[in-house]
Specification:
By secondary structure, the chain is mainly α. Helix content is 73%, strand content 0%.
């Protein structure tokens, strides 16, 4: 369902919304530096093109490396 609802949104619209997430979630009290924004955008772009199985593998690895 997520793919269905997000398929119509352009990459630029997605990037703009992603920029708003840290502020909305209040994960940090400061805004990211411009270079950090570019790195986050690059990561979002790469992940958005991955097949779902690769996304699942990546999530699994990330979750298990945090412990």
């Amino acid at each position: 369902m997520t793919k269905h609802y997000s398929a119509h949104a352009s990459m630029e619209a997605k990037r703009e919304k992603m920029k708003q997430l840290p502020e909305f979630m209040m994960l940090s009290g400061t805004a990211a530096a411009p270079s950090e924004d570019a790195e986050r955008e690059e990561l979002v772009s790469i992940v958005s093109r991955l097949p779902i199985e690769k996304v699942r593998e990546l999530l699994f690895a990330l979750k298990h490396n945090q412990q």
